[in-house]
DNA sequence: CCCATATATCTTGATGTCAAGAGACTTCAT
DNA sequence: ATGAAGTCTCTTGACATCAAGATATATGGG
């Protein structure tokens, strides 16, 4: 079946027949698929009244394991946002009762952000919903194809994930 | 080589051994790779003093073929932004002399946005730079692997691209 | 002990985006 | 013709984000 990238590539080949636009076949599909996934996830999370950014913060804490707490600094390295954004996010999550701020007992400059029991439940529910949706999106592929895709994608992401930047 | 998603999946398997998180192996990699690509593209475009959104608009017009003009409405279906955003983008591109607004001769409500000669040059230069960068990112893969990846990704994107939404 | 430097978090101001709606014009049924 | 509904673009107001800097605390060399 044809997709938007086929049309995009065809347009470039018509307008710029001198250029080799083959890289777009892979990387434009990655970007466009990510956009579609963002929208789909937003819908899935909305069923649990969570925004994507809320899911990111709550699940970062959830994955940390009991007692489900991290410093704002650790959270911002995990979620790749700036400190101003993280302050704002913690404020709103605390107001909704999903996390709470605790003084760091070992550093008086510091704060610890801890998942409340309700925050933990919401994170767990939303994760289950997300996985159900993702299984549906991947439904067309065989196990063999999923493994192949994961492996090829890992080859592309590993260089980014294993440098300081 | 290990990547961030391997670590993410390992954390979930430790904290939620009851869940099958295998879908993340594919779809989290897609999202994370897209984030990396966004950053890389921003850098590539910066060498031509273009923002990613400027590239999107200019190349949409470029792909339309001579005389390189589209209505704001056509531009926003291509770039998936709202009309308010598009008005703002056209304003700024016109101010920089990369596009110009013309009255639509067939509909007095309408406007046509046309690429200026400078806008066309900038779009062409930035596209060449982008393709060079993308070839470097894909450098690790064989032709066979790229084709395989493109084909698998097309299977995932086609359902999104061939429905009204 | 003291000061310079580093670290952790929060605050401020600017920006780009979106959602909703306004204004101008067109289209179509009557 | 005429009025209602549709279409196209732009305006407005709210919001999340970022970059830069402020505040408070910690750390280590002299």
From TrEMBL, chains A, B:
HTH marR-type domain sequence ranges: 23-158
Keyword DNA-binding applies: yes
InterPro entries: HTH_MarR-typ (IPR000835), MarR/SlyA-like (IPR039422), Tscrpt_reg_MarR-type_CS (IPR023187), WH-like_DNA-bd_sf (IPR036388), WH_DNA-bd_sf (IPR036390)
Transmembrane segments: none
Domain of life: Bacteria
Stored PROSITE patterns: HTH_MARR_1 (PS01117), HTH_MARR_2 (PS50995)
Protein name: MarR family transcriptional regulator
Lineage: Bacteria, Bacillati, Actinomycetota, Actinomycetes, Kitasatosporales
